[in-house]
Amino acid sequence: MSQALVIVAHGSHLNPDSSTPTFDHADTIRASGAFDEVREAFWKEEPSFREVLRTVEADEVYVVPLFVSEGYFTEQVIPRELRLEGWDVEQWDSDGTSASHTTLTATDVAGKTVHYCGPVGTHDAMSDVIVQRAESVTGDPEVGEGFGLAVVGHGTERNENSAKAIHYHTDRIRETGRFDEVEALFMDEEPEVDDVAEFFESDDVVVVPLFIADGFHTQEDIPEDMGITDDYREGYDVPATVDGTNVWYAGAVGTEPLMADVVLERAAEAGANVGNAISRVRAETGGVVGD
């Protein structure tokens, strides 16, 4: 039986780079041969959520949201736009970070079974991507000892699950003992990333934003808020020194090539036959930049 993967992401009318990670990860998975078809779909770009299932020929479709947290988009917008019949968020049986998958049909595409997965941002493998991001920005595959790690989220009163995802991965990475310190920081709630140096005793701190794509927040707000540059247009040093602390700013975690692995893991857990694609993609994307 043929199977297809559909990666759904937000996209942007304003930032042409917003969709780049989605296309990059789709290309990686496409090259692995795990699926007969791999499609991308967006809320703010083409191809759209609403049309994408009509472009798929496979009988079994695995839909993986390239979103950080469970919330408005994963629970309402995507199921509505895909017209998933019988969808109810209770089918995920989640506490805010544990959505897995559910099997449904779409009302306007006959003969297809749709396996709707939880977002990549809450999958356990995302912790590995955050660590990989720290390795990439420092160029050190053993980075950890002598370093602090800040996992940064947006923070919002509109979606309490947004912060849950940040704390979830912060706790998981802290428990490994790899870094001297691991803290969750936010843009719009306490503790704020503006004061990054105050939350660490380490001389070196890697800052990894749990965002899918680089955009206004990761390229402009966070660098300026942290004080590693006065004007984002002039760029910043990596590392940059703030109040005596060397800040290694990594940019959006979703741009890390290892993200393709998380998408595959989500689909495999929903029943997709991916063969040895997960181990191969991990091997291909797990190296430090410059290796």
Automatic annotation (TrEMBL):
Matching CDD domains: CbiX_SirB_N
User: Which superkingdom heads the taxonomic lineage of this protein's source?
Assistant: Archaea
Task: List, alphabetically, the InterPro entries matched.
Answer: CbiX-like, Sirohydro_Cobaltochel/CbiX
Query: What processes in GO biological process is this protein linked to?
Result: cobalamin biosynthetic process
Leader sequence range is: none
Q: Where are its TM segments located? A: none
Looking up Pfam families in the UniProt record yields: CbiX
**Keyword terms:** Cobalamin biosynthesis, Cobalt, Lyase, Metal-binding
User: Molecular function (GO) terms listed?
Assistant: lyase activity; metal ion binding
Which NCBIfam families does UniProt cross-reference here?
PRK02395.1-1
Q: What is this protein called?
A: Sirohydrochlorin cobaltochelatase
